[in-house]
Amino acid sequence: MTLKERIWGAVWGKDIDRVPFTTYPGLFPEREPLVKAGLIGTMNRCAVYRESSTADIKRSSEEYQVGNEKRVRHTLRTPVGEISETLRTGGGYGSSLRCEFLIKEPEDYEVMKYIVRNRQYTPNYDGLLETEKTVGDDGVVVGNVKYSPIQEMLVLLMGAERFSIDYYERRDLFDSLYDAITEKDREIYKIAAESPAQAVIYGDNITSQMIGLERFEKYVIPRYNELGSMLHEKGKLLGVHMDGNHQHLKQAIADSEVDIVEAFNPAPDGDISVKEAREAWAEKTIWINFTSSFHLAEPELIRKHTIDLLRQSYPGNRFIIGTTENVPDHVRQASMKIIAETLREKGTFPLSV
After folding, report:
1. What is residue 237's three-state secondary structure?
2. Residue 100 is inside which H or E element, if any?
3. What is the spatial distance between Cα 104 and Cα 58, in angstroms, rounded to a whole number?
4. Model's pTM, two decimal places?
5. Residue 126, Cβ neighbours under 10 Å: how many?
6. Are residues 35 and 92 in the same domain?
7. For residue 199, what are the domain limits?
8. In a domain, 91, yes or no
9. Residue 56 CB-density burial (10 A; 0-12 exposed, 13-18 middle, 19+ buried)
10. 110 falls within a domain
């Protein structure tokens, strides 16, 4: 069985030889020996669409220094005004951090809505097919779409403080932006449903402490269900990148049209164990991020934890162990090799753990 067949088999709930092990390609550059041995496959997320803006929206960037910090300010100018955001750059693994968001004042909402309404989405089917050709049998390619509307507002446009204040004090403006993004995102839904992807991932980074059950049920679940229904009509699956804590969202997720809970962060790092997840989401594929803290453990503890994850996943169908977070350089190769070899030894069906 090829890596590709094993991963897709687990996703679709088919009979396979053993529990798959996957990684995002950029997180494990030394993966080739394990790939060639059939021990780890790549999970490649490729956008199903391309995004551009109308010509009357101008973007400029300015780099500058604040003490030892490198910063870059992006400014968007439109016929109805301008807004800007500032990122602190130079973080670990090439990361950056927003220290000033696009929406800071009430008047920024109209500018942002203008920008949203003038986004242009076109299919990226050729990009997806080319990625599949490149990956071959060494992994799978899933379609990728942006944050859901309210997660875009929280993570990219407003930040936690402005999001919280405006949700309670300026609900009319808050909802008007949500509605504008939702309406425009429906163009992406149609592109995703018509795409050649077998499954599409909503890259939402959901965690219950930030979104809360009230907003999750009111603003997030309807979008998952709308996209999920469109994908299901075309014989495709919906996944969501859920890498936070979900105890308070567990039942809402169970009742949703989501087929794949991807990047799930199991206990003890998260607040739900694999066993609890299996019981709550029996009909869904649980595609976990291997418990990050254990990469730093002694080899025998890594092995024992891998076996424990298998035990909790019993009977092991619709279960994939993946790596969706950065693993420290000094332990990555050794840890990944132990996990892969343990799955080869103990992850074969029928599970004996």
Report:
1. strand
2. strand 97-100
3. 19
4. 0.96
5. 9
6. no
7. 3-54+118-346
8. yes
9. exposed
10. no
Inside any domain, residue 112: no
List the helix and strand counts (H, then E) for the chain: 13, 14
With residues binned 3-state (H G I as helix, E B as strand, rest as coil), the percentages for the chain, rounded to 5, are: 50, 25, 30
Residues 285/339/303/263 CA torsion (nearest 10 deg): -40
CA atoms of 296 and 305, how far apart (whole Å): 12
Structure tokens of 313?
A: 């996943």
Same-domain status, 91 and 178: no
* C-alpha to C-alpha distance for 8 and 21, rounded to whole angstroms: 12
pLDDT per residue of the chain (353 residues) written in tens, 0 to 9: 999 999 999 999 999 999 999 999 999 999 999 999 999 999 999 999 999 999 999 999 999 999 888 999 999 999 999 999 999 998 877 788 999 999 999 999 999 999 999 999 999 999 999 999 999 999 999 999 999 999 999 999 999 999 999 999 999 999 999 999 999 999 999 999 999 999 999 999 999 999 999 999 999 999 999 999 999 999 999 999 999 999 999 999 999 999 999 999 999 999 999 999 999 999 999 999 999 999 999 999 999 999 999 999 999 999 999 999 999 999 999 999 999 999 999 999 999 87
Token pair, residue 322, equals: 């993946």
Q: Looking at the structure, tell me whether residues 309 and 223 fall in a common domain.
A: yes
User: Which alpha helices (DSSP H) does the chain contain, by range?
Assistant: 3-12, 32-36, 108-117, 125-135, 149-152, 159-169, 171-193, 208-215, 221-233, 250-254, 274-280, 299-313, 329-346
Q: Name the nearest CA neighbour of 108 among 77, 146, 154.
A: 77
Indicate if 63 and 73 belong to the same structural domain: yes
CA distances (Å), 12 to each of 42, 189, 228, 259, 287, in order? 17, 21, 15, 9, 12
- Please check whether residues 165 and 68 belong to one and the same domain: no
What b/e string do you get for 60-85 counting C-beta neighbours within 10 Å, with b at 16 or more? eeeeeeeeeeebeeeebebeeeebbb
Tokens of 65: 């220094």
pLDDT of residue 94: 79
Please say whether the beta carbons of 93 and 154 come within 8 A.
no
Helices 171-193 and 108-117: angle between axes, nearest 10 degrees: 10
